[in-house]
Specification:
Strand content: 25-35%
Number of domains: 1
Distance between the termini: 18 Å
Largest sheet: 5 strands, antiparallel
Shape: globular
Bound molecules: zinc ion
Oligomer: single chain
Number of helices: 4
Order of helices and strands: EEEEEHHEHEEHE
Length: about 180
Protein backbone atom coordinates (compact mmCIF):
# COMPACT_ATOMS: atom_id res chain seq x y z
CA UNK A 1 0.00 0.00 0.00
CA UNK A 2 1.48 3.32 -1.00
CA UNK A 3 1.42 6.31 1.20
CA UNK A 4 -0.58 9.11 -0.29
CA UNK A 5 0.99 12.50 0.00
CA UNK A 6 -1.61 15.12 0.79
CA UNK A 7 -1.84 18.15 -1.47
CA UNK A 8 -2.49 21.32 0.44
CA UNK A 9 -4.54 23.99 -1.23
CA UNK A 10 -3.96 27.53 -0.11
CA UNK A 11 -6.50 28.75 2.43
CA UNK A 12 -8.87 31.41 1.12
CA UNK A 13 -7.88 34.97 1.90
CA UNK A 14 -8.98 35.59 5.47
CA UNK A 15 -7.96 39.21 5.96
CA UNK A 16 -9.72 42.38 4.90
CA UNK A 17 -12.56 44.72 5.70
CA UNK A 18 -16.28 44.27 6.25
CA UNK A 19 -19.53 46.11 6.52
CA UNK A 20 -22.16 45.33 9.15
CA UNK A 21 -25.71 46.23 8.16
CA UNK A 22 -27.73 47.14 11.21
CA UNK A 23 -31.12 48.44 12.10
CA UNK A 24 -32.03 50.36 15.25
CA UNK A 25 -35.77 49.83 15.73
CA UNK A 26 -36.35 52.27 18.60
CA UNK A 27 -34.32 55.38 19.36
CA UNK A 28 -32.02 54.97 22.32
CA UNK A 29 -29.12 56.46 24.26
CA UNK A 30 -26.07 54.30 24.92
CA UNK A 31 -22.90 54.71 26.89
CA UNK A 32 -20.11 54.30 24.31
CA UNK A 33 -16.92 54.28 26.37
CA UNK A 34 -14.77 57.35 25.77
CA UNK A 35 -17.38 58.88 23.48
CA UNK A 36 -19.79 59.18 26.39
CA UNK A 37 -23.54 58.92 26.03
CA UNK A 38 -24.68 58.91 22.42
CA UNK A 39 -28.16 59.17 21.04
CA UNK A 40 -29.08 56.75 18.26
CA UNK A 41 -32.03 57.64 16.07
CA UNK A 42 -34.23 54.95 14.62
CA UNK A 43 -33.05 53.70 11.23
CA UNK A 44 -30.39 51.88 9.28
CA UNK A 45 -26.70 52.00 10.11
CA UNK A 46 -23.57 50.63 8.49
CA UNK A 47 -20.44 49.88 10.46
CA UNK A 48 -17.13 49.58 8.62
CA UNK A 49 -14.64 47.29 10.33
CA UNK A 50 -11.41 45.49 9.75
CA UNK A 51 -10.34 41.90 10.31
CA UNK A 52 -6.66 41.78 9.47
CA UNK A 53 -6.14 39.03 12.06
CA UNK A 54 -8.94 36.81 10.73
CA UNK A 55 -11.81 38.31 8.77
CA UNK A 56 -14.37 35.50 9.02
CA UNK A 57 -13.86 34.98 12.75
CA UNK A 58 -14.19 38.71 13.38
CA UNK A 59 -17.46 38.94 11.47
CA UNK A 60 -18.79 35.74 13.07
CA UNK A 61 -18.07 37.28 16.49
CA UNK A 62 -20.42 40.16 15.74
CA UNK A 63 -23.26 37.68 15.16
CA UNK A 64 -22.75 36.08 18.59
CA UNK A 65 -24.61 37.44 21.58
CA UNK A 66 -22.49 35.74 24.27
CA UNK A 67 -19.44 37.98 24.08
CA UNK A 68 -17.68 40.47 26.32
CA UNK A 69 -18.11 44.10 25.36
CA UNK A 70 -14.77 45.17 23.90
CA UNK A 71 -15.39 47.69 21.14
CA UNK A 72 -17.84 50.53 20.53
CA UNK A 73 -19.72 48.33 18.10
CA UNK A 74 -20.34 45.67 20.76
CA UNK A 75 -22.39 48.21 22.73
CA UNK A 76 -24.50 49.12 19.74
CA UNK A 77 -25.05 45.46 18.80
CA UNK A 78 -26.60 45.00 22.24
CA UNK A 79 -29.63 46.89 20.94
CA UNK A 80 -29.36 46.98 17.14
CA UNK A 81 -30.57 44.23 14.86
CA UNK A 82 -27.75 42.85 12.71
CA UNK A 83 -29.25 42.35 9.25
CA UNK A 84 -26.16 41.17 7.42
CA UNK A 85 -22.51 41.59 6.60
CA UNK A 86 -20.52 42.12 3.43
CA UNK A 87 -16.93 40.90 3.36
CA UNK A 88 -14.13 42.47 1.35
CA UNK A 89 -11.19 40.07 1.48
CA UNK A 90 -7.89 41.80 0.82
CA UNK A 91 -4.29 41.69 1.97
CA UNK A 92 -4.37 45.45 2.37
CA UNK A 93 -6.18 47.69 4.81
CA UNK A 94 -9.11 49.23 2.99
CA UNK A 95 -11.58 50.00 5.74
CA UNK A 96 -11.02 53.76 5.65
CA UNK A 97 -11.55 53.89 1.88
CA UNK A 98 -14.67 51.83 2.37
CA UNK A 99 -15.86 54.22 5.09
CA UNK A 100 -15.35 57.14 2.70
CA UNK A 101 -17.27 55.33 -0.04
CA UNK A 102 -20.19 54.67 2.32
CA UNK A 103 -20.13 58.27 3.57
CA UNK A 104 -20.32 59.53 -0.01
CA UNK A 105 -23.81 58.03 -0.30
CA UNK A 106 -26.36 60.87 -0.40
CA UNK A 107 -27.80 61.54 3.04
CA UNK A 108 -25.27 59.33 4.86
CA UNK A 109 -23.89 60.81 8.03
CA UNK A 110 -21.07 59.64 10.31
CA UNK A 111 -21.56 59.06 14.01
CA UNK A 112 -18.57 61.20 15.05
CA UNK A 113 -15.59 59.24 16.39
CA UNK A 114 -17.39 55.90 16.50
CA UNK A 115 -14.92 53.12 15.62
CA UNK A 116 -12.40 55.61 14.27
CA UNK A 117 -10.10 56.29 17.22
CA UNK A 118 -7.11 54.92 15.24
CA UNK A 119 -7.64 56.87 12.02
CA UNK A 120 -8.69 60.26 10.73
CA UNK A 121 -12.12 59.30 9.40
CA UNK A 122 -15.11 61.20 10.79
CA UNK A 123 -16.48 57.86 11.97
CA UNK A 124 -16.74 54.19 10.99
CA UNK A 125 -20.42 54.07 11.85
CA UNK A 126 -22.72 55.65 9.29
CA UNK A 127 -26.35 56.56 9.80
CA UNK A 128 -28.55 56.07 6.73
CA UNK A 129 -31.95 56.86 8.18
CA UNK A 130 -34.66 55.07 6.22
CA UNK A 131 -32.45 54.53 3.14
CA UNK A 132 -32.28 50.85 2.23
CA UNK A 133 -29.00 48.94 2.25
CA UNK A 134 -29.52 47.48 -1.21
CA UNK A 135 -29.38 50.85 -2.95
CA UNK A 136 -26.14 51.76 -1.22
CA UNK A 137 -24.41 48.47 -1.97
CA UNK A 138 -25.34 48.75 -5.62
CA UNK A 139 -23.47 52.04 -5.80
CA UNK A 140 -20.61 50.76 -3.70
CA UNK A 141 -19.66 48.17 -6.29
CA UNK A 142 -18.08 50.74 -8.63
CA UNK A 143 -16.43 52.68 -5.86
CA UNK A 144 -14.64 49.78 -4.23
CA UNK A 145 -13.45 48.02 -7.39
CA UNK A 146 -10.62 50.51 -7.64
CA UNK A 147 -9.57 49.79 -4.08
CA UNK A 148 -9.05 46.12 -4.94
CA UNK A 149 -12.21 44.99 -3.16
CA UNK A 150 -15.25 43.19 -4.46
CA UNK A 151 -18.80 43.19 -3.25
CA UNK A 152 -19.38 39.51 -2.53
CA UNK A 153 -22.98 39.62 -1.54
CA UNK A 154 -25.86 41.87 -2.31
CA UNK A 155 -28.27 42.98 0.36
CA UNK A 156 -31.96 42.78 0.11
CA UNK A 157 -33.22 44.54 3.18
CA UNK A 158 -33.24 42.49 6.35
CA UNK A 159 -31.84 39.46 4.58
CA UNK A 160 -28.85 37.90 6.27
CA UNK A 161 -26.15 37.13 3.79
CA UNK A 162 -22.42 36.97 3.52
CA UNK A 163 -19.79 34.57 2.39
CA UNK A 164 -19.71 31.13 3.96
CA UNK A 165 -16.42 30.25 5.58
CA UNK A 166 -14.75 27.77 3.25
CA UNK A 167 -12.47 25.55 5.32
CA UNK A 168 -8.96 24.96 3.96
CA UNK A 169 -9.08 21.67 2.06
CA UNK A 170 -6.69 18.78 2.20
CA UNK A 171 -7.05 16.15 -0.52
CA UNK A 172 -4.93 13.23 -1.55
CA UNK A 173 -3.34 13.48 -5.00
CA UNK A 174 -5.34 10.50 -6.15
CA UNK A 175 -8.58 12.21 -5.28
CA UNK A 176 -7.86 14.70 -8.03
CA UNK A 177 -8.14 12.06 -10.80
ZN1 LIG B 1 -10.90 55.27 9.12
Amino acid sequence: MSRRRPVHFPAPLDTGAYLLLMRVRAECTLDIGRLGRLHFARGNYIYIGSGMGGLHARVARHFRSDKKVKWHIDRLLGVAELSGAVLFPSQHRHECRLAQAVLAFPGARAVPGFGSSDCRCPGHLVFLGARPFGALLGRLDDRVQGAGCRVLGRAADSVVFGTPHPAPRTLSKEALH
